[in-house]
Please model this.
Amino acid sequence: MKPVQVVFPVFRGTRRFFIEKGRRWSVVEHLLLDAVVRQPASASELSAKSGLPRRVIIEAFIRLMRAGWVELMTPPSGPTFRATALGAVQAPLEQLPAATVIEPRWRGFAIEQVTGGVFRSRELDIRPPSNLPISSDEQIVIHLPGSAAHANGELSEVFTAIELEDELIVGVDRSAEKLVERYAVVTVRDDIIEGLPSRASSALRYLIQLKAHEATIAKTTESITSVPAAPARPEPLAPAEPWVSRHALYDHDDLIVDGPAHGAALDRAIRNATERLIIHSTFITDSRAQATLPALLTAAARGVAIDIFWGEDDVGTTTKPSRAAAAKLQAAVNEAGRAESIRVHPFSTNSHAKIVVADNGKGGWLALVGSCNWLASQFDSFEASIRLRDPVLVGELIRRLAGLSRGRPGLWHDLAIEIAVLGRRVEALPRGNGRTVPMRMLYAPDHARLVLEARDRAQKRIFVLSHRIGIAARPVSLLPILAAVKAKDIEAAIYYGRTTGPLSGAHSAELTREFAKEGIAVRPVHRPRLHGKVLGWDDDAIAVTSLNWLSADPADAALNREIGVLVEAPKVAENFIRRFENARVD
Model:
């Protein structure tokens, strides 16, 4: 059987990274130090209390003794560990200070454009277009196309791929160089891929094997029985595979409901920040920007670095109004002498997401995610957002903001790098105390799948709030919900604020009558003005997002165009829908 060479596009780059080298302290080591601060103990005693192997405990204490934080006593009862005075000072800290140094290092990397995987340059056979193989009697050459969804890559994934053990990238040297377009070449021989590192995703492996299999069938002159079977589709590509929810910090007041509560949440975030504030508002209006400016200037005077991004203007128009308001806001900032502290992004991110990220002034971080246009809203509509306080989720969201700030494919700039580094730093912070519940970040293509998940999991009811209703309502949301109503006789309620696009008022009334016959109540809401975007089912599951569930069907390629959060907490959906029904006048 002829070998098949598979060619796929990559972005290749080389940068000088600033790398923090040195091992960091683990949670186990921190807990053991805290234990012997409270009371000296032997390794056997700590092993019995913790369930950890005695060898692990001894190795941890060897490191702690080298740092001068623990000492070994030898009383008649046997060797005992106790904290030194210096160790007693370190134990209460949220993180033990690591003994690290920062060194500049040049590292090369490649971002494959098929599934977005990142490799070190030397891990792939990377070639320019002029040096690619061609098909011949001895080999078959095929090309695997890239995907627009991975045109930029994610900076944090680049950092992770090129970090060695005990390394952490904390910065990248300024460079005007773009990533260059190149191609990687791998060989498939007897269904075995040669030249692809083990870090490659199962999705990429599957696509390479599938292309090679198709090419072999097309080229072979042997009998069909000698053609190898198609590769088995890996689980990560299976459409039924669920996302992974993680337990994250959540309290009942983290669900922010109605306009005034959003105004108060924004004010509190700006007022409490001492290090960093990032606002992404789909739209910017001059009146709201100027009303927020005094608070921003006060924060900047405290030393807070502020970045403001905007996504796009209203549906069916250009981005000129938001761009003009952003430029006017930056001019006012410059006039106030705060241009180095407050940066207003001059170009659209092409995202509909609505996000605020800030430190809380106490070493922690928070994010607000949902329906509110923070720099365009008058805070008099019915809105819904979630306050994230878990460092893993907040860090993940910050890394997404780094992607939104990127600009053209293959182009890195200081702000994107800075935000990516911040996201990784926040993500690594220890979680504070508090109740945790399953939570999941939602990005653009996740929303359509979540409607199907609600259809399958709901046992009692499903409800949807959407600012707009359009022609996408039927296939994206209404038909899956109708399937659940027919299969399980559940209650379904759909609320919307206004029609959009080609769907007129008459057509929406017809749609309402059609689905009412099937047991789904589709209701317009005029008071209060409905701007929230929510999907919930039963009592304990609610998704709060920027997506208009009844008018938008975002493409898979625009991953960050819509961003939301799924929360599964006792009575969270029941409490929300009760508050909405109480607020609704018509």
